[in-house]
Structure formats: C-alpha cells, structure tokens
Amino acid sequence: MLLIGSWWRNRRRRKLCAEPFPDVWEELLHRNAAFFSKLTPQQQAKLRDDLRVFIAEKDWEGCNGLKMSDEIQVTIAANACLLALELPEGMFDRVRTILVYPGDYVVPDRSVGPDGVVREGPSARHGEAWLRGPVILSWSNALEGGQNSRDGRNVVFHEFAHQLDMLDGVVDGMPPLAGKAQQQRWQQITRQAQAELHHDLRHGRPTLLDPYAATNAQEFFAVATECFFERSKAMRKRQPELYGLLSDYYRQDPAGRSGK
C-alpha cells in the first residue's frame, strides 16, 4: 500500500509540475522572495516545482479574519522551499497545516526565570513550529522577511529551520546528520559559536547573530539559518566555521551568489 501511495503521489506531483507556471506567481516570486533573482536558472526551475508541490499539499488556513491568497501562499512557500532546495526530497512532508495570522498574535505564556519565579501572561509572537503539528506564521512578518533580505530576520526561515531540527523527533538544535563524525563536528562548532555569542552579549559587544540565538541550542540553529541565508557574506567572513557547517548541511553557498 505504501508503494502504491508513493506512486500516486509522485505521479500527481509530476502532473502538477508539467503545467505552465502562473505568470502572477512569477511576479510574486520576484517581488516577495528577494533571493530568487540570485539563484541559477536551474535552481529557479526547481524552486518553482517545489513551491507548487508545497502549496498543493499543505492545508492553508487564515486566522483572525485573514483571507488566504496566492500572494500569501507563494511568498511563504518560496521562502520555506529555499531551505530544502538542495536537500533530499520530502523534508517538509510532515508539515500538514500552515496557519497564518495577519500580524503578531497573542498566546498565553508561562515561563520560569533564572530566579525561579514563575511568570504568566500574554505573549506576542511572529511564528511557531510544532513537533508533529502545524507551522504558525504572522503574514506581515513573513512578507517583510521575504522582501528584505539584508537584516538577517526571516520568520519563515526560522520556523522551517525548527521543522528540519524536528525531523528526528528531538528538538535539540541539530537536524538529522549522516553519522557520528558529522554530529560531533556540529556540536563542536555550534557550541563554540554559542559560547562566543554569550561572551559578546555579556560584554555588550555587537553580534552578528540576533541575541535571541542565545536562548538555547534550537533557537541558535534557527537564528543562524536566518543569518546564513540573509547575511551570508558577513557570516562567512566573521564566523567561517559556522558558515561552512551550515553550507555543508544545506548544500548551498549563498555568499557565493549574494551581492550582500
């Protein structure tokens, strides 16, 4: 049954990708995915196909009165698919539902501070990624992140990096890797980079990565992914080992194609 299901899925995908790519979608790619024009023609063609499959196979839901549109779907799908552009097929197949709010949304929150005090109250968020669950995004932030590729912030990159981290069922800031040697290299480089980030923050020094990366290992990976794709040349210059690690994982060299 699994083989039959896979055959039908692949057949459906091939049929979908054989259709002409909508002109309005092409315009949206150039307008809302700033990285798109820097890809090679082959990469652009693959991203178009990946994007069509992504849109067709997810359940999209607008929240708080947001009406779903082609622009929302194309923008979010394009940015998500960039992360998996050179990765094995099906990296985001487990993501079945994408919930999109017009802007920041508020959820109840409970946290325990370093002093041991429990704090409860509303928390405004740009996005969330749930293990074996949906991805939740703010449309205003997703749009800004797609159009502005220079600030190192992209909520779609961030939340879908979490989904890559979750592929092995463990949320630990390390996506599934090929073997023990790669895992050890990952831990060595990321832990050193996190230690340097904490040191710089303690001493009030400006940091390449957003300070939110210091929260924990999983947020470090998500924030580093944003920086890798958006401030690639700066990362390659200032943190070459971290850049090389992410370049090996994503199988991409954004600094080599970036004008930034």
Poorly predicted runs of 5 or more residues: none
**In angstroms, what separates the terminal alpha carbons?**
49 Å
Which class of secondary structure composition applies to the elements?
Answer: alpha/beta
The biggest beta sheet is recorded as: 4 strands, mixed
In terms of DSSP E residues, the strand content is 5-15%
The backbone outline, from C-alpha atoms, is: globular
Give me a quick take on this structure.
The chain is α/β, with parallel strands linked by helices. The chain contains eleven helices and six strands.
Descriptive account of the structure:
With 260 residues, the protein is an alpha/beta fold. Helices cover 53% and strands 12% of the residues. It is built from eleven helices and six strands. The strands form two sheets. It has a four-stranded mixed sheet with strand order 1-2-6-5. Helix 4 links the parallel strand 1 and strand 2. The radius of gyration is 19 Å and the shape is globular.
